[in-house]
Each structure stands twice: as structure tokens, then as C-alpha cells.
Amino acid sequence: MPIKPTDFLSVAETLHAGKVVVRGEPCDRTTAGRLYYAVYLALRDVVRSDYGRPALRVEHAPLRKELASSSDPIVADVGARLDRLYEFRRRSDYELAHTVSRNSAALLIADAKAIFAAIPRMAGKIPPGIT
Amino acid sequence: MFAVQASTSPTVFTFDDLAFAMRQSGEWAISGDAWRLAARREASSMILKLASEVFGPEATVAPVDLADGGAAPSRTTIEVRYPAPKSEQALLEAHERFMHRYVREIAVSVRASFSVIAVPLDADQAD
Q1: Exposed, middle or buried, B28 (CB in 10 Å: 0-12/13-18/19+)?
Q2: Which of A81, B51, B67, B116 is the most buried (most CB within 10 A)?
Q3: Is B95 an 8 Å CB contact of chain A?
């Protein structure tokens, strides 16, 4: 269902006022964005810790590519889910005519939770070359 | 087909390996980007087979052409579209089955240099 740029303005004003955002596509699109950054920031910390470089600049594309192409199934699973989250975030923010459904948002929440659950098992398995 | 063998082999392949092996087989006497297109087609076939098993025969796959406005992708995205199950629990279970099998049967075998995005479609979204 197409949305308008002002729908994002309404979501922002509602959140700023401390009110509940009603269910609907602007809410689902906002959900997709917050979920992607939740996992990106957590995985950035994992990479920085694994590399022993706390200020490392971790680019989005190499992070997704290297994790998703790992031969370790735990890391590859995280990469595949990160790919999904990134793609839905991109569609949610840029492709206003492209439907982002409530079902998709529910699956993205599941993907984000799966990533957070996998993070403790990723130590020492981070592929080299993520910068 | 080579790709089917790759999905069951313990050997790890890259996307380029897959394209190179197909060319070496003589089936595709082509070069350059055409190799990658052929490999993408073969990867799409593998993903469609898996999606049909998990989501049912109505699942479809298609490479995604990105619209303007977003950051350019670093690799091809293959989109799987399937009818959304009626309940959210069934939706979540199907999604987890697909992700589990995709990662173990395709991604870690082919060392995918493509993204796979499975999208559940409500009845009013179906083409």
C-alpha cells in the first residue's frame, strides 16, 4: 500500500508526544528501520571486539557480505537475516509505493531476535576483512 | 546439474566458482557478465526448489532490480514471494524452516554472493 512522506512525519510527531503509533504501514516501516539499526549496532560491537579495534569503522555492505558468505552456519544465518533486515529497511525508507506488510514486520522482529540470540556464539568466528 | 551437486557437496563454492564450473562444463561457452547471469539463474533455480518445498508450489523467485533512492547494493538480491499462512505462528515457523535450510543447504555451499529475501504476500498483494 503506498504511503506519503508526511506519514513518516506523523509517526515522528506521535512518538515525540509519547503517544502510541497506530498499527499500519507507516508503523511497520518504522519498525523495520529500528530493527535494522538495533542489529547493525550490536554486530558492529561484535566485530570491533573480535578484531580488538574499538573505534573501527564498520561499513554496512562489507558487514552483510562477509557474514552472509561465511562457511560457518551460525555466522551465515546471521548474515542472511541481516541481509533481509537491510533490504526491508531500504524499501521501508525509500520505496513508498512498495508494500511493507505487518507480516513482514513480524518476521523482521523474529530475524532480529535470532541475531541477538546468536551473538554470544559468534565469538572468534567473525570473518576477516570487515571494514 | 552442477548447482544441484553443489548443494549436497561438502565442498565450498563461491558464486564465481559456480559460474566458472558451468562454463567449463561446456554448457555455457560464454564469458564476462554472462557467466554471472548464468550462475544467478542457476542459483535462482536452487532457491525456487527450496522455496517450493517449504512454502508450497505457489512460491516464486525473481532477481530484484532496485529503484532509485536507496544505497546501491553490493550484490544481487533474489526475492522469494510466497502466500502468507493464515496464522502468525505458521508464518514464523515457515520462515524459520526456510532460513534454516537456505543457510545450510545453499548459502554455506555456494558461499552466496547474492542476498535472498523471502517476502510473505497477503491475499491482496498477490499478483
Answers
A1: middle
A2: B116
A3: yes
User: pTM for the full model?
Assistant: 0.83
Q: What is the dihedral of CA A110, A76, B100, A107, to 10 degrees?
A: 20
The grid coordinates listed for B15 are 558464486
Express each pLDDT in A113-126 by its tens digit: 999 999 999 999 99
Q: Where do we find the cell 571494514?
A: A131
Q: Is B117 on the interface with A (CB under 8 A)?
A: yes
Does B102 touch chain A if contact means CB atoms closer than 8 Å? yes
- Residue B66: other Cβ atoms inside 10 A: 15
Asked whether B58 and B78 are in contact (CB, 8 A), the reply is no
- Rounded Cα distance between B71 and B102, Å, is 25
B57 HSE (CA, 13 A, CB side): 0
In the structure grid, which three cell numbers stand for residue A72, read together? 560457518
Residue B32 per-residue DSSP state: T
ipTM: 0.90
In the CATH scheme, what architecture does the domain A5-121 have? Up-down Bundle (1.20)
**Are B60 and B80 spatial neighbours (Cβ–Cβ below 8 Å)?**
yes
Interface of B with A in 59-78 (CB under 8 A): 66-67, 69-71, 73-75, 77
Only one residue has cell 546501491, namely B72
Q: Do B119 and A90 touch (CB under 8 A)?
A: no
> Is the separation of the CB atoms in B69 and A94 below 8 Å?
yes
